[in-house]
Amino acid sequence: xxxxxxxxxxxxxxxxxxxxxxxxxxxxxxxxxxxxxxxxxxxxxxxxxxxxxxxxxxxxxxxxxxxxxxxxxxxxxxxxxxxxxxxxxxxxxxxxxxxxxxxxxxxxxxxxxxxxxxxxxxxxxxxxxxxxxxxxxxxxxxxxxxxxxxxxxxxxxxxxxxxxxxxxxxxxxxxxxxxxxxxxxxxxxxxxxxxxxxxxxxxxxxxxxxxxxxxxxxxxxxxxxxxxxxxxxxxxxxxxxxxxxxxxxxxxxxxxxxxxxxxxxxxxxxxxxxxxxxxxxxxxxxxxxxxxxxxxxxxxxxxxxxxxxxxxxxxxxxxxxxxxxxxxxxxxxxxxxxxxxxxxxxxxxxxxxxxxxx
Length: 358
Description:
By secondary structure, this protein is α/β, with parallel strands linked by helices. The chain has helices at 7-15, 35-48, 65-73, 77-82, 104-114, 133-136, 162-169, 212-228, 230-249, 265-270, 284-287, 291-300, 316-319, 335-357; strands at residues 2-4, 26-30, 51-55, 87-92, 100-101, 117-121, 140-144, 156-160, 188-192, 195-198, 255-256, 274-275, 279-282, 306-308, 324-327.
């Protein structure tokens, strides 16, 4: 594991270490994708000619795993033998404005079967729920301290699978795995005046300068998370989220947006997916109340929420939706706080709708 200063920095170090060279290389991702990752795919395609294939979501918002297998099968056996590992599969485990935990283990199993590289964005999952990178089968996984771990801003980390490290330095390798996109004497040894040797572990992705105080904060947060138990934390937070959604559904004009109406938790579990504690909603499509205005009103009452834009998606219809208010109960919250938040949301929505009408 390499320590970096954000999840996005960790993700970018992994992505830009891959040796895309031509249109024979593919980036497979899903329609619901974090914007910070999507623009990097577009840049890489522009630079190298690598092809982006956007795979669909099911109508219930779960990644279409059979569509992924069909895409992987389009690479012929001979192509895989001549140039193995020239396909990247990228998955965002939990989208920033969605509550669906995508079936990462199923995706990882397909990547293993077809020899694809698997890059998993766990920014919204590490600290919120148990994440076993070995069980998920990913080659890279990035995370942040500042979200569900409640560590300081400016902390991130990157898991790198052993095969990715070894293949990057193997002589004659034709796989996508490559060296970090930038190095210094922290990640490599200046072995002779005209040569260097990368460190054998994920530390090769680190740089010399770092915020040591923030890293100590990350360590303390990880200790707390482990002591309280990720599985127990997740169970408590999701119970609060369910209570929150139930209350929001009863507020006139409130539209819950973190999962499609057809999402079913039992079906999700059968597919290796789940529902997490992220809750998003809006009232612009019904009452004309902008999420930004509701955010300001709730913040003024001491309720911590954020606004997520609709641009974290490849599909034009999804991008045309209004921005949403995001509220994410944690294991440190209580039912009484959820009820207080619901009362405030109802009051502020009614007030803002009246003002809008005036």
